[in-house]
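Researcher: Please predict.
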Amino acid sequence: ADFTSNHGSSSHTCIYRFRVHGRELDSVSVVHA
């Protein structure tokens, strides 16, 4: 949450939401994309 709050970027927020779902693999894919 802190990481997302500091950046405050929509992209980071989407990644955080994916992590909340427990899909770390999806999060990594988004980061690379």
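Model: Residues 2-32 form one domain.
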